[in-house]
Design a protein that fits this description.
By secondary structure, this protein is an alpha+beta fold. It is built from five helices and eleven strands; from the N terminus they run αααββββββαβββββα. It has an eleven-stranded antiparallel β-sheet with strand order 6-5-4-3-2-1-11-10-9-8-7, with helices on one face.
């Protein structure tokens, strides 16, 4: 009985407090606080579930496969840094617009600058070009420019054999054997065996600084 009377007194007390404006405001404020706490908890839980279900979208750029034809076009159309070893000759320089400008060194330690435009060879002294017909007369100078080699291997009558790893193409042309070595995106070397001479021709594309910055 005593317990029931205390509960009734407690209920009566809450009812009485609700009637008092000051306590009524406090009770309302407490209820609002509880409501917002529950609302914040529910929204946070929903947000966590939504983030968990989000599948990240990868920025997938279409990667175009570089074909053998693309590599040959790059060798022809882009400026190339070259290193040639041909029997007793050693050349380093640049090929641009189908013209070779290089330093030529031979086994006598003679070093000169030359230019070859697919027609004539010039010795360059202090920016002055002098035609020379007595330079590199014992080799096939046509091999100095890749355009002439590509013209040979593009001939439908010249059949190329591809290696199992797709990194080397080998061709037989008249008395010459031509091997083209590839990286994943360019031609890095061509070796030609012709009339007992070996032409070891290495290429590296010259990258424009503006292209790198872009």
């Amino acid at each position: 009985m005593k317990k029931e009377e205390e509960e009734k007194k407690e209920k009566r007390t809450l009812k009485e407090l609700w009637q008092i404006p000051f306590y009524n405001s406090i009770i309302r404020l407490a209820l609002w606080v509880i409501f917002f706490i529950l609302l914040f908890f529910i929204l946070s839980l929903a947000g966590t579930r939504e983030k968990t279900n989000i599948t990240p979208i990868e920025d997938k750029e279409e990667i175009k496969e570089v074909t053998y034809k693309d590599m040959k076009d790059k060798l022809l159309n882009n400026e190339q840094s070259i290193t040639y070893t041909i029997d007793k000759y050693y050349l380093t320089g640049l090929i641009n617009n189908n013209t070779l400008n290089a330093t030529l060194e031979d086994d006598t330690d003679s070093i000169i600058k030359i230019k070859y435009d697919n027609d004539k060879i010039y010795q360059v002294k202090k920016e002055v070009e002098e035609e020379r017909q007595d330079i590199l007369t014992d080799i096939n100078i046509k091999y100095l420019l890749p355009s002439n080699i590509i013209e040979i291997i593009n001939d439908p009558k010249v059949i190329g054999i591809k290696s199992s790893d797709n990194k080397t193409y080998t061709y037989n042309y008249l008395d010459a054997a031509i091997s083209v070595y590839l990286t994943d995106n360019s031609i890095e070397k061509i070796i030609i065996l012709d009339n007992t001479l070996t032409y070891d021709l290495e290429f590296k594309e010259v990258v424009n600084e503006k292209e790198v910055n872009n």
